[in-house]
C-alpha cells in the first residue's frame, strides 16, 4: 500500500471506470442474440480480435513464468515461449479452414467434420472438458493475482481472487464478447505500454545493456544441485569437477569438505548457505585464505578448477537445492560434477555436460547435448515440431480454443488470418522485451538456487523503482493483464456451455433471448467455481498442469489428422482421448512411482504418449466405418481442408460442386 | 516471369498451392526472428536490429505473396456465407438442411 500515492489511485480508478463503463455501454448490443453475446455478430475488423489475442495471452502468471525460465536458461528460455509460432502456420492453413466452417467452437466444428453418434459424443465431451478447463484456468490465474495483491496491499489471498475476477465478471455478464473485445482493446494497449516501460526501466536499472552482457560473460560456472533426500549426515562431503580439454585430456579438481545434515524440524530457523553476489563472478574464490585454505585444499590436484561454493565447512541440508559455483580454465569443455559423502572413497554423478561460465545465457542455440543437460537438442526439436506442425491442425493446443472464438468473430476469412498474425507477432515481441529485461534482473541476483525467490521480481522491481504516478499506471497495467485473461475465459467457457451443451442438447428451440441469459448464468457459474479452485490452487497446480498435458500430448496428432486425412473418423478421435487418459497416468505418474520405468523428460513423455496413442487410434479408425461420403463432401466443399482428401474431392467433382 | 502468382481465379484460389506453403514458412521464420531480434535489440546489440529488420521484411514478403490469393478466397466465400450460417443454425437445432 506504501507504494501508492493519490496520483496512482487516480490512474487505477480511471482505468476501472473505463473497463466497467464499456461493459455497460455494450449491454444492449450483446443482448440481441447468441451470436452477439459470443462472437460480436462475426463482424469485427482484424485488429480488434488481434489485440484481444495478445491481451488474453498476457496473464498475471505469464511474467512470473517467463522470469522463472529466463533465470534458469537465459536467452534460450525463448524456446519455452516461442509457441505462438504455430499461429504463423495456422493463419494460412487451419485458420482458413476453421473460419470457413463458421463453427463457433472447436466442438461444433467436429460435428461438421464428423457425423452421427461419434460426432455428438465428441461434441459433448469436448464442450464439457472446455467448460471445466475454463473454470480451472480462471482459478489458477485468480490465485496468481491473489499473490500479487498480497504482496502489494497485504490483502488476504481471497480478496485478490474474488475481487478482480468479479470486476471482469461485471462487464462480461453484461456485454459478453462485445465487452471482452472493447475491454481487451484498452487492456492490450495499456498492458503493452506498461510492459515496455517497466522492462526498459529494469534494463537501465541493471546497469544498461552493455553492463548486463559484461556481467553475464564474467560470471562463474554454476549448477543447481538438490541434495538427495536420503543422504546420510556427514562432515566429509566433497564435490569434484572433471572436464575435457581438446577432446582428450581429462582434468579434475576436488573441492574442500563440507557437511550434510538431515532436514531440521523447522527449516525457517536455519540460515541456508548461499554464495554471495561477489562470488558469482570470476576472480572471486571461496572465503578461506592462507593456511586454513591450504589445509582444506589438500585434495586439489590442480588449479584448473576452483570450487567457490559450497564453502569449506558449510552445512547443506538434504532435500534442499543449492547453486554450486566454480570457475575453470577457458578451454575446458563438457564438465561433469560428482559428489562423495564418504571422504572421497566413492563418487556419484550430480550432472554431466554442464556448460562452463554463464555466457551461454546470451545464446539461443547453446545446447547442452543431444539428449542430456538442461537444454538438449531433442527437446528443442520436439518443441519446433509441435509448434510448426501443430499449426496445421485444429485444437492442437489449449490456446486454439481461445483463438477459435477470435477467428470466427473476424469479419472475413482474410481478416481472420490477419487476426492471428497480429496477435501472435505481438505476443512474441512482448516475450522478446521480457527476456531482455529479465536477463538484466538476473544479473542483479544470480546467486539463488530456488527460482521461487526471484520469479515475481519483474513485478517487485516495478513497484520499488518506478517513480510516483507511474506506479499507479503499473498497477492499472497489472489489472489490465489480469482482467483480459479472466474475461476471455469467462466468455469462452460460457460459450461451450451455452452453444454446445444447452442450445444443441438441452433446448434446441431456445429463443435468442433465452440463449443470452443462459450465457450470463453460465458466466456466473464459471466465476463462482473459479473462486473455489482459486482458493485451493496450491494443492491442485500439479494436477492442473497434468490435466493440460493429457489433452496436449495425446490429442495433438489426432487434431492434425482430422484436418488432413479424410479417412480419420470420430471413433479414432474419441479413442485417442480415452487411450491418452490411461497412458498419460501410467507414463507420467504410475510406472515411474513403482520404478518400472525411469522418470522421463517432458519431450520423451510426449513422443511415447504419441506413439502409444497412435497404436490405438489408427487401428480403431481403420476398423470402423469412414464418415458418410455425402457428409464429408459437404464439409469439403465448404471448408476446403488440406491434405489427403482424394475420394471426397472426386465425389464433389462428380456432383459438380467444385 | 512473375516470381509469384498475383491474379487468381476463384477455382485456382481454392487449391492449396506453393504460395500457401511459402507464406506459412516465411511468416514462421519471421516470428522466430522477431523474438530473437527483439531480445538483442533491447540489449543494443547490432545483430538484434539486423535480425529484427530482416524478420519483419520476410514476414511482410510472406504476406504479400499470399495476399492476392487470400483476397480471392475471401471474396468468393463471403458470397456463400449467409447460406452456410443458416445451415449451421439448423444443425444446432437438429433441423433438416436443404439440398
UniProtKB/TrEMBL annotation, chain A:
Tell me which UniProt keywords the record has, alphabetically: Cell membrane, Ion transport, Membrane, Sodium, Sodium transport, Symport, Transmembrane, Transmembrane helix, Transport
Report whether Cell inner membrane shows up as a keyword of the record: no
Pfam families from the xrefs?
SSF
What are the subcellular locations of this protein? Cell membrane
Q: Which residues cross the membrane?
A: 6-30, 51-73, 79-98, 131-152, 158-177, 189-210, 377-397, 418-445, 465-483, 515-537, 543-565, 577-597, 603-624
Q: Might you report a single GO cellular component term?
A: plasma membrane
- Family membership: Belongs to the sodium:solute symporter (SSF) (TC 2.A.21) family.
Name this protein carries in UniProt: Sodium:solute symporter family protein
Question: What species was this sequence derived from?
Answer: Fodinibius roseus
UniProtKB/TrEMBL annotation, chain B:
Task: Alphabetically list the UniProt keywords.
Answer: Membrane, Transmembrane, Transmembrane helix
Q: Which residues cross the membrane?
A: 21-43, 49-67
Q: What is this protein called?
A: Uncharacterized protein
Give the classification, highest ranks.
Bacteria, Pseudomonadati, Balneolota, Balneolia, Balneolales
Amino acid at each position: 500500500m506504501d507504494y501508492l500515492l493519490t496520483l496512482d489511485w487516480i490512474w487505477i480508478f480511471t482505468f476501472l471506470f473505463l473497463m466497467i463503463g464499456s461493459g455497460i455501454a455494450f449491454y444492449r448490443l450483446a443482448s440481441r442474440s447468441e451470436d452477439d453475446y459470443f462472437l460480436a455478430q462475426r463482424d469485427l475488423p482484424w485488429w480488434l480480435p488481434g489485440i484481444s489475442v495478445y491481451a488474453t495471452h498476457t496473464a498475471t502468471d505469464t511474467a512470473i513464468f517467463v522470469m522463472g525460465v529466463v533465470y534458469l536458461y537465459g536467452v534460450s528460455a525463448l524456446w519455452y515461449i516461442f509457441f505462438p509460432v504455430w499461429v504463423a502456420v495456422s493463419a494460412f492453413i487451419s485458420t482458413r479452414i476453421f473460419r470457413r466452417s463458421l463453427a463457433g467452437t472447436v466442438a461444433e466444428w467436429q460435428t461438421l467434420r464428423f457425423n452421427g453418434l461419434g460426432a455428438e459424443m465428441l461434441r459433448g465431451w469436448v464442450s464439457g472438458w472446455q467448460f471445466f478447463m475454463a473454470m480451472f484456468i480462471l482459478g489458477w490465474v485468480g490465485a496468481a493475482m491473489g499473490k500479487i495483491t498480497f504482496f502489494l496491499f497485504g490483502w488476504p489471498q481471497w480478496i485478490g481472487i474474488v475481487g478482480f475476477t468479479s470486476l471482469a465478471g461485471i462487464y462480461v455478464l453484461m456485454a459478453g464478447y462485445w465487452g471482452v473485445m472493447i475491454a481487451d482493446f484498452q487492456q492490450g494497449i495499456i498492458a503493452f505500454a506498461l510492459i515496455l516501460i517497466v522492462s526498459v526501466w529494469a534494463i537501465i536499472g541493471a546497469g544498461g545493456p552493455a553492463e548486463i552482457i559484461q556481467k553475464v560473460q564474467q560470471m562463474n560456472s554454476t549448477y543447481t544441485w538438490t541434495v538427495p533426500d536420503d543422504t546420510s549426515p556427514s562432515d566429509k562431503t566433497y564435490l569434484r569437477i572433471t572436464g575435457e580439454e581438446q577432446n582428450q585430456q581429462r582434468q579434475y579438481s576436488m573441492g574442500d569438505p563440507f557437511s550434510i545434515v538431515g532436514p531440521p524440524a523447522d527449516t525457517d530457523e536455519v540460515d541456508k548457505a548461499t554464495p554471495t553476489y561477489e562470488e558469482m563472478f570470476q576472480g572471486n574464490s571461496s572465503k578461506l585464505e592462507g593456511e586454513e585454505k591450504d589445509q582444506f585444499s589438500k585434495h586439489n590436484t590442480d588449479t584448473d578448477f576452483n570450487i567457490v561454493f559450497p564453502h569449506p565447512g558449510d552445512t547443506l541440508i538434504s532435500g534442499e537445492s543449492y547453486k554450486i559455483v566454480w570457475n575453470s580454465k577457458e578451454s575446458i569443455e563438457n564438465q561433469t560434477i560428482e559428489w562423495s559423502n564418504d571422504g572421497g572413497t566413492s563418487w556419484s554423478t550430480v550432472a554431466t555436460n554442464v556448460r562452463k561460465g554463464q555466457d551461454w545465457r546470451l545464446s539461443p542455440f547453446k545446447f547442452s547435448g543431444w539428449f542430456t543437460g538442461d537444454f538438449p537438442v531433442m527437446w528443442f526439436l520436439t518443441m519446433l515440431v509441435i509448434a510448426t506442425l501443430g499449426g496445421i491442425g485444429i485444437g492442437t493446443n489449449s490456446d486454439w480454443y481461445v483463438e477459435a472464438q477470435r477467428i470466427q468473430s473476424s469479419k472475413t476469412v482474410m481478416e481472420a488470418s490477419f487476426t492471428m498474425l497480429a496477435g501472435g507477432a505481438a505476443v512474441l515481441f512482448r516475450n522478446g522485451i521480457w527476456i531482455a529485461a529479465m536477463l538484466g534482473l538476473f544479473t542483479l541476483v544470480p546467486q539463488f538456487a530456488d527460482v521461487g525467490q526471484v520469479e515475481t521480481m519483474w513485478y517487485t522491481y516495478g513497484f520499488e523503482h518506478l517513480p510516483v504516478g507511474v506506479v499507479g499506471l503499473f498497477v492499472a497495467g497489472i489489472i489490465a493483464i489480469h482482467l483480459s485473461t479472466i474475461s476471455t475465459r469467462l466468455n469462452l467457457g460460457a460459450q461451450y456451455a451455452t452453444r454446445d451443451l444447452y442450445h444443441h442438447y438441452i433446448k434446441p428451440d431456445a429463443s435468442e433471448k433465452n440463449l443470452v441469459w443462459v450465457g450470463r448464468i453460465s458466466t456466473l457459474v464459471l466465476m463462482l467455481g473459479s473462486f473455489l479452485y482459486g482458493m485451493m490452487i496450491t494443492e491442485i497446480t500439479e494436477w492442473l498442469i497434468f490435466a493440460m498435458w493429457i489433452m496436449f500430448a495425446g490429442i495433438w496428432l489426432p487434431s492434425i489428422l482430422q484436418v488432413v486425412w479424410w479417412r480419420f473418423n470420430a471413433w479414432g478421435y474419441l479413442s485417442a482421448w480415452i487411450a491418452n487418459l490411461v497412458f498419460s497416468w501410467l507414463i507420467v505418474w504410475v510406472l515411474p512411482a513403482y520404478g518400472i520405468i525411469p522418470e522421463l523428460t517432458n519431450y520423451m513423455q510426449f513422443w511415447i504418449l504419441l506413439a502409444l496413442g497412435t497404436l490405438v487410434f489408427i487401428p480403431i479408425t481403420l476398423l470402423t466405418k469412414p464418415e458418410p461420403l455425402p457428409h464429408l463432401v459437404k464439409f469439403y466443399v465448404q471448408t476446403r481442408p488440406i491434405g489427403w482428401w482424394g475420394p471426397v474431392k472426386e465425389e464433389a467433382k462428380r456432383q459438380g460442386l467444385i | 516471369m512473375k516470381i509469384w502468382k498475383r491474379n487468381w481465379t476463384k477455382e485456382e484460389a481454392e487449391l492449396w498451392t506453393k504460395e500457401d506453403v511459402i507464406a506459412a514458412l516465411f511468416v514462421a521464420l519471421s516470428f522466430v526472428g522477431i523474438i530473437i531480434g527483439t531480445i538483442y535489440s533491447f540489449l543494443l546489440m547490432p545483430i538484434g536490429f539486423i535480425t529484427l529488420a530482416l524478420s519483419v521484411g520476410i514476414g511482410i514478403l510472406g504476406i504479400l505473396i499470399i495476399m492476392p490469393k487470400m483476397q480471392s478466397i475471401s471474396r468468393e466465400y463471403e458470397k456463400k456465407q449467409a447460406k452456410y450460417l443458416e445451415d449451421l443454425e439448423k444443425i444446432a437445432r437438429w433441423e433438416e438442411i436443404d439440398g
